[in-house]
Each structure stands twice: as structure tokens, then as C-alpha cells.
Amino acid sequence: SALRNLATLDLRSVGLTSIGMGQLATSLQQAKGLMGLRKLLLSDNDSVKDEGVAALATALATSPHLAGLEVLDLRGLCMSADGAVKLMSALASSAFYTNLQVSGCSRLLT
Which of 6, 20, 21, 110 is most deeply buried (CB count within 10 A of its CB)? Predict the structure, then answer.
């Protein structure tokens, strides 16, 4: 697969929405060639809300070919406390993350 050597997927500030995040999540689940992916950078896509975060969390929790992922950058997404709980629940069984960034999530305190 052409994606085999991809170490970083950088989609920071690209105008991603919750629908787009859901589509990305589906693609990540199906892309078995991403075994080398170490960094997933999705920060500053403030149109991504809880639904998109939940879809991503499910993909990450259920995709064994993403087991090498170390950095997940979700800074600046519009995630609420409910979204954060779903994310943490989905990732609780994944001991491979060394860096999870969620600062600047505008709805975490509401």
C-alpha cells in the first residue's frame, strides 16, 4: 500500500466538520496500510463537534492497524465534556498513546 510509510497525517486547520471527521474515521478503519502512522494531527478544526470526535474515537479503538499511533492532537475542536468522556472511554484500552492533546476545546467547560 502507498500509505505504508506514512508516519504523520496532518489535517490541522483544514475546515474539517463532524461529517468530515466521520468520513475520515471510516477511512482510517478501512486503511489497513496505516501500520506506520504515528501522529494524527487534527487540531484547529473547530467545526468538529462531539459526533465527529465519537466517530474518531470508535475508529481508533476498533482498528488494530492503528495500534502504532502515539500522538493524537485534537486541540481546538469543539468538543464538550460528553465528547471528552466518549474519547477517553474509547481510548482507555489503548496503552500505546504517549501524547493526547485536547487543550483549547471550547466546550469542555460548558
Answer: 21
Measured at the CA of 97, the angle between CA 54 and CA 4, to 5 degrees, comes to: 90
Tens of pLDDT, residues 86-110 = 888 877 766 566 777 777 765 554 4
Phi, psi (deg, nearest 5) at residue 22 = -60, -40
pLDDT in tens, 32-54: 888 889 999 999 999 999 999 99
> Which residues are registered as beta bridge partners of 99?
71
CA-closest candidate to residue 40, choices 58, 56, 52: 56
Evaluate whether 65 touches 95 at the Cβ level (below 8 Å): no
Q: State which H helix or E strand residue 8 sits in.
A: strand 8-10
104's torsion region: left (phi>0), alpha (psi -120 to 50) or beta?
Answer: left
One-character DSSP codes across 39-53: EEE--S-TB--HHHH
Close Cβ partners of 99 (under 8 Å, ≥ 6 residues apart): 70, 71, 72, 73
